[in-house]
Amino acid sequence: IRVNGKQYGFRLDEKCTSSDDLVEKYYNPLRKVQRLVESPEIMLSGHNIKFDLNFLCYKFKWKMRCLAYDTMLGAYFLDETDIYISLEELCNRYDVMNNYKANINRRKLREMNPDDELLYNMRDTKSVVLIKERHLDPALAELELTGMMGLGCQAIPVLSKMETRGVLVDQEYAKREQMKLYEQLIDIRQDLKELAQSPFNPDSPKQLGSILYNKFSFNPVKWTDTGAGSTDSESIIRIRQEQCGRETDNWKGTKFVEKLLDYNKLVGLNEKYYGKLPKWIQADGCVHTSFNIGVTATGRLSSSNPNMQNQKRGSEFRGVYIPRPGYVFLEGDFSQIELRIAAWLAKEKRMLQMFEEGKDIHTATLCEMTGRNYEDTLKLLDNPKHREYQDVKNLRVGIKNINFGEIYGASPERLQREMVKNGIYWELEDCVKLCNDRKKLYPNIVKWKKQVENFIVTHKYVRMPLGQIRRLPNANNNWKDQDSKRAIRQGINFIIQSTASGWLPIIGMILLDKYFQQNPEWDGCILLQVHDSILCEVKQNHNRGSMEKLKKTMQTIMEVDVKEYIKEVFSVDITVPLEFKCDYLQRWR
Questions:
Q1: CA–CA separation, 379 vs 384, rounded Å?
Q2: pTM score, two decimals?
């Protein structure tokens, strides 16, 4: 640390009886650094700077309000394949202070002379400054990415707070739920043995293969290296889709496969989550994930160690996460955000009108395609006893799959497979007709996609509305080239996903964090972001009016303030209405 021309060196892992002792020992420089970290007018620069900010704020309980410029994020905006690029690689790329680490064994830094260690760290810092000022900033400005970098500088401190706060785990609840899972597994194993009419171990690929392919005469869809029929999850799912159903007389085999899928799901739930939970929980009883900005090619945030974004909505496991005593969760998510952004980008008037009128897009699309009355159809879908209920519900499931899938290039074959997953068996011709009818209803979506495809083929890149770029060098005019088809599909995905479930929620988090800073009585903190949903933790206030006001404030920030921010900063007017639904929870769900 260098303050007023003087240098102060200290080890962050230095042993003291408490963090207060460490603060006292280095009182002057640390207090000055604290003022920098807690000042909203200051921007600190570093490489993977979130790591350092996390340490300082977790160790010394500082309140982070500064901005943070990360050279790793700047490199990502210039080339999205530069994921987790090291400072040393950037130094070599830009010929900046290179080779100063050549004789340093970074695994033995603690054994270095403190003066040498301080010099080493100062050279790291100098490298960051030179790379930022001489190379990254000019390159970002040339590509019109300065606004995106500024957005990232505001997002990094928010992510740091989320990581240091963590999410509390109800460990007793987790143990009870795991015991219930074990009981379910025992019951399903017994059901499998009864259906197979012989004892066998469902965890043994050899024994399971014998039951599937000999006892029930299913045809293998994949083979192992030894030439045996595969029994992995993908194979079982394909057997369920392709060889089971209402038309087969092998009803015991169908029932066996369905039970086997249930068994695999529970085994996966136990191995992937409950079994790993004790390793995730840290000393404070919380799980502290890492949120990675500038890692995914789609522009979304990712989560690691552990991945909190793959814990699916509605899954039993999510209930292990609870708010701290005296606090409550406030969770919300954008409704149909990707379809809204697609309609806005394509200027699809019919869809935009549906959103303006507050209609459910899937039911409204169904009505437009079939000539049904919208209000009557809503009533029908609320009445399971109606004679047409199941057929209309199945049709809505199909249209929902098309609405989300067609903008990303999903085929009728894909629709047919998705319907089977929902227990709905449609002929391929029906799926083809439904896809074609949907394209006729929304021609501007088709037209916009074609324009984007042509741009990608011509320019080998695509740019989303706020300016972020994805480079697609494999795109070409050869429509039989699978790499080219994949690149074009990725480009369309990028434009929609990076906007809808990438930067829009991040901007909302930045604005919400500012609100919590300005209203400290809530002690509010964002805990998690899962694409289009945001989970916060706020103090429990027994004044119902205040709690409802906070909910409405969060909705206003997400639905109105986010669009105003984008219009003011990026001169982009998102004209489609956004809908953000939020509610209080005692457990995550």
A1: 10
A2: 0.89
